[in-house]
């Protein structure tokens, strides 16, 4: 988990608020799609 968390945290730390909101929405949608695939 630590391998992907650090770069992701760094990316969030250097973005502005609007970009951060868009990234969170994208990650949320991506997670939902992944969960749908795993549950099949």
Automatic annotation (TrEMBL):
Going by the entry's taxonomy, the superkingdom of the source organism is recorded as Bacteria
According to UniProt, the name of this protein is Uncharacterized protein
What is the organism of origin for this protein? Answer: Bythopirellula goksoeyrii
Organism lineage string: Bacteria, Pseudomonadati, Planctomycetota, Planctomycetia, Pirellulales
């Amino acid at each position: 988990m630590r391998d992907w968390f650090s770069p992701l945290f760094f990316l969030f730390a250097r973005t502005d608020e609007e970009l951060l909101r868009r990234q969170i929405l994208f990650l949320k949608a991506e997670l939902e799609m992944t969960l749908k695939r795993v549950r099949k």
